[in-house]
User: Fold these one by one.
Assistant:
Number 1:
Amino acid sequence: MRAAVLHEIGQDKLEVLDDVEAVGFGPGKVKLRVRATGLCHSDVSAMSGVLPQPAPFIPGHEGAGEVIDIGDGVTGLSAGDRVLVCWLPACGACPACRRGQTQLCLAGFMNAGTPNFKRPGGDVFGFAGTGTFTEEVVVDAGCAVPIPDDVPFEIAALIGCGVTTGLGAAINTAQVEAGSSVAVIGCGGVGISTIQGARVQGAAQIVAVDPVESRREAALRFGATEAVAPDGLADAKQRITAGEGFDYVFEVVGKSVTARTAYENTRRGGTLCIVGAGAMDDNFQVNMFELFFDEKRILPSMYGGGDVLRSYERAIALWRAGRIDLESMITHRVQLAEINDALDQMRTGEALRTCIEF
């Protein structure tokens, strides 16, 4: 079958091959036919080494498709079911799951170290234990979440990562209050979803911050009240908050420099929400006096900061009600053979979200 493979960490191009086989099917497993998958910045971060991932590997974790077959012991799924891919399934038994913090379950991460593909030359891993830049994939049953018939595959794919992450940051983690002021730094797919979440929560002012003009224009269409380049944030802070700072600032880039900017633009007693996934050697610093004196809340948000199954259901309900726009987030649609063009469009900021269709 066809799949897009990264041979070594640090390479910026994928090779589309037709000699890949999905392996590992058995008890507790599900084989899926991928129908649509989104290109998320985390895929690029794994390719560059910012996020740890064994290689060679197949990127992709924001996918949806149909069940081909189920292994022994799998319940609640049947061949032909339409599902989205959950890259961080909850085991239901670990301390995090028992506390109700299923987004912190580590069971899914353990899958990243087990190859779920192979080629004539050896084993191939799937990113985050999945790997959806391929025609078929074998995953744990918990990774296959049934979706209603009225949800298109491309919409379900977005809900599987970017939409859930961004909406959840605003709704679950920060719990944005109605009438508040918000700034969102980084307006790719996750940042746009954060903007939509803040709008759903009733924020009065939502300032989108991004260096790419097309993304700023898109942010206005999705609910931002204004959009500025990074060098315009100080002026927006002065105009909107009289220099005090925003009630909520979301960092959706994953770099310490933008996290520091976000901190400095959060008002005293306000909330800084870290949504971007960054590198292990990129350290964010605050001094002990400002940490105590300013009483700013620093809240990381992992995969939307809540139970992902409930978050999926909420996203679908909001989409059905017309409260969030997911169709317009897909700015580019490509075939797998065009994956490297799609990667370039993401790196330059030309694409908001790219859907790879099979």
Number 2:
Amino acid sequence: MALAATNTLANRTAQVPGSYKPAAATTGVIAGTKLAKYNQSGTDLVITRDNTVLENLEIYGDIKVRAKNVVIRNSLLRGGSGAPANPTAVVDATGSQVVNLRIEDSTIRPDRPHYNRDGIKGHDLAARRNNISGTTDGMGIFNRPGGSVAANVTAEANYIHSLTYFDYSSAHSDGTHNDGIQVQGGQNIRIAGNTIVANAVVGSGSRPGPYGPHAGLGIMLQQNVSKLANVVVERNWVDNGTTSINIDNGKYSNITVTVRENLLGRNQYKFNAKSTYPIRIINRSASTVTGLNTNKWADTGALLSQTVPSGIQYNK
């Protein structure tokens, strides 16, 4: 598949997600853009005005979106200068005020990676053609606890790679579990046409992780916050990590998702020096996965099958 044209925003938006493999040249700030420095103090940038547009900027500080119809476009997002006390993201969209956030054609690369700093986190947003690296998770998707069951998130044509591992985590006893895209609950979620390379670099002051250069999961579909519904994962390129696509019913008795026509690489971490998990389903009887048998190996185009070691495996 041909790479999308990169010289103008119009050329990029004309390309259909899934028809080309996103990479550095087709994501992030458009080459040649002159960026104005913004919020150079590096303190949190809290957006409370509806319809705010941040465009063609080099933005310092973690962005807390607390408004409707905010647009962040064609900008370099450098993240906060401090160490966040609680889990957050370079773009944090977890507030109840967030509606229809758009993050497009931006480079998300924190100057100070931290175990509490993801790339994009929250609900009611569309993330398209972004280049995300250096964060703990690339994206965290879930509906707002205590609010609507709808997450309303679209992630299309992004390039997520080179996550940062820390041997300390506020959530896990064994260090950070770096995932390309972690879905923890909600309805109306579309993950399409992204390139997700779940590899990891070691954060400052940390020892190497248990899986070496491999991060956690490429795409995690897990029902921690709420039950999933109307979730579609299609035509993504996913590789590396301990598993490329993980499907877990979590604290609910069953899970129903669509996972179709994805292209999976062969570079997962090898457990016991032999077992790899391109697609791992935690509980076969609790899982309904539409399109499961349409997923393919990226190198040959051959269909994955449900026999070990042919790509689709079950914990039980």
